[in-house]
Amino acid sequence: MVLRGYVPTSEETLQTLAALRLQSLNSDFSTHAPFPRLEELFPPHVLHARLPPPPHQPPAKCRRARLRMGLLAGGLWGQALAKQRAERDQRLRGRLREEGASTMAAIVEKWKLLQGMGRPEAMAAYVALVREWPGFGSTLFDVDLHMSPVGAGPQHLWLGIGAKAVSLYKPGEPEPLDSFCYGRISSFGASDSSTFRLSVEDRDLLFETSQVDEIAQLLNTYLASAGARRLPRPQEPPTSPPASEPAVLPQGLCPTAGPWQLRQPVGSSHS
């Protein structure tokens, strides 16, 4: 969740989380301790966000004119552009290495301050920091919101489904744009294989997503666990789930995680 950017928090907190992870993995700081790669400790997108944006592309008409000039000049223009791109990419890679080294140094300094902290304490401190995000414990789904009636273009959001409410987040923002307790939801279901409809009182929200079934299953599970009736999907007769059916929660972008169930980065074998 943290490494993939699904826990919005400050860069200072992200560095502290990385230091706590090092303390949990390796105990006290030592120059001989094995160092994970930075991307296993710190969200890579934060470093990439520090890099300058790519240069503005000229209009297509100008690009075609330059292409003709390049062809007439025997390809010299294309060679010059390729050289410029290679130089720019090399500068960006160098800048990324510098930013990575600076961030790792800051993480190590915070790690040194944790001397004497045991692994359980480091894990508890890590989770306590993550729990400061109001959306902690929710399952997040990547969706594009289409308002009904149709208005502006789709808005890319996180759909957070928790035990008490459904929330909408702007990616990277800690506070929800809106939140709906289950008592306000009048119906929900699949409009088609890639569109999920959520009716909240007098509002219809249409979400384009590849996880329609997972969202519906999770909503049904929370409603059932709260003792609420199962709401039918469109064109589906109302049914009641079997009382003995176990609740199996589908996984979204960041699955519901308890204090000792935080997902590890790819390639890590530690808990």
Automatic annotation (TrEMBL):
Pfam families associated with the record: FERM_M, IRS
Domain FERM residues, every copy: 1-233
Record field: compositional bias (Pro residues): 234-244
InterPro entries: Actin_motor_Myosin (IPR051724), FERM/acyl-CoA-bd_prot_sf (IPR014352), FERM_2 (IPR035963), FERM_central (IPR019748), FERM_domain (IPR000299), IRS_PTB (IPR002404), PH-like_dom_sf (IPR011993)
Regions crossing the membrane: none
Residue span of region Disordered: 230-271
Source superkingdom: Eukaryota
Protein name (database record): MYO10 protein
